[in-house]
Amino acid sequence: MCFHMSFFYVILVPEMSYKKRKKGLVLLADGTTFYGRSAGINGTSFGEICFNTGVTGYQEIFTDPSYFGQIMVTTTSHIGNYGIKMSESQSKKIYISGLICKNFSVTNSRFNSESIKKWFDSNNLVTICDVDTRALVRYIRDNGAMNAAITTELDNITEIQKKLKDFPIMDGLELASNVSTKKPYEIGNKASKKRLAVIDLGIKKNILDNFVRRDLYIKVFPYDSDFDEILKFKPNGFFLSNGPGDPKPLTKVIETTRKILHKNYPLFGICLGHQIIALANDIKTYKMFNGHRGINHPVLNVNTGRGEITSQNHGFAVDYETAVSNKSIKISHTHLNDQTVAGLEIKSKNCFSVQYHPEAGPGPNDGNYLFDQFLSKLNDG
C-alpha cells in the first residue's frame, strides 16, 4: 500500500492589525450613527454621503472631480485589494471628501501596482472601514442623500455635530469653481483641422483621452471663461464637461451655452454639461433623492430602440415634464430603472447631451459611439 502525502503552504501577508486600527464613527445629519475603524489618517471629514455600486474601478471613482464634496460609501466588499496605478486616475488627486468601506486591504495583488494605504495617506484622506455598509446603504437608499461626518475624534462628537449641522447642503451649492482648471491649456494634435473648445466644470481624463484619440486639437478653458475669449481659439465646436454640485448657480456657464447655441456651433455635454444645456433651454433641473452612481445603469437609446449599459455619477437630473413639453427638445435617452432623462437633442441645433458617462473610466463602453457622433458634427476649420 502506498501513501501519498500532500503539503500545503500558507503564506501569511501582514494586514493592518485590528489592534492598530483606531475606532471610527459615521455620523449622519439626522443623528444616525454607524461604527467602524480608521483605515486612513486620523481626523474628521464632512460632505454629502452617497454610495457607488460598482464592484471595480475604485481608483477612477475616487479621482473623479464630480465627487468633490462627497463622502463615498462603496458597496463592493473589498477596497484596495488590487492596489492602484497612477495611469488609471481620472485627475491628479483624490476628490472624494472621505471613504466608508467594508474591508480595506493594505496589500495589493496586481503586478506593478502601489498600495492604496500609502496613496490615501499622501492625500490626507479620512477613511472608515469595517462598517456595515449593507445596512448603511439601505439606510441612505430609504432616507435619501444627506450630509454626514466621518471621524476618528470620538472625544469631540459634540463639536462635530455642531459643525455637521452648519455644513452646507448640496442643493444650491456651486462647486465647479473648486475643480475647474485655473488657466487654459492645450492638448492633442496641433496640426488637426478640427479644434474643440472644452469648458472645464471638472473634466475627467478619459473624456479628454477620447477626444485626443480622434485626432482633435483641444483647448481646455476655465469654467467662467468669457465666450469672446474662447472664440479667439477659433473652435469648430464646444464641449461642456462633467463636474460636481448644483448646475443652477452656474449662471455664467449657462449664458455662455446660450451664446454657443445662438451661433449654432456643434455642442456636446456630459453629466453636469448635460444639465447646463437643459437650463440654457429653459428646462428645469432638480436634486435627486439618492442619485445614480454605478457602472451598470441601463439606458434606452430612444432613436435606435437599443439598450445601453452605462456608467453614471450624478445627484441632479433634468426634469422630465419641462423637457418633454419643450417643442425644440427631443429626449434621446431614458434611464430604464426610473425613467429619468438620460439624454437630450436640440432639434434645430447641432447639439446633444447625455447624463451618463460614455467615456467610462470606470465602466462599460456602450456609449462610446457618442464621441464619433459628435466628431461628425465638427466641420473642418
Can you identify the CATH superfamily of the largest domain? Class I glutamine amidotransferase (GATase) domain
SSE topology string: EEEHEEEEHEHEHHEEHEHEHEHEEHEEEH
Could you say how many structural domains there are in total? 2
Question: What is the CATH topology classification name of the largest domain?
Answer: Rossmann fold
Low-confidence stretches: 1-14
CATH architecture of the largest domain: 3-Layer(aba) Sandwich
| Oligomer designation | single chain
CATH class of the largest domain: Alpha Beta
User: What's the alpha carbon Rg, rounded to whole Å?
Assistant: 22 Å
Mean pLDDT: 94
Question: What level of helicity do the residues show?
Answer: 10-25%
Name the strands of the widest sheet in spatial order: 10-12-11-13-14-19-18-17-15-16
Shape: globular
Structure annotation, total helices: 11
Biggest sheet overview: 10 strands, mixed
What features would you highlight for this structure?
single chain; 381 residues; alpha/beta; Glucose Oxidase, domain 1; Rossmann fold; ten-stranded mixed beta sheet; seven-stranded mixed β-barrel; 30% strand; globular; disordered N terminus
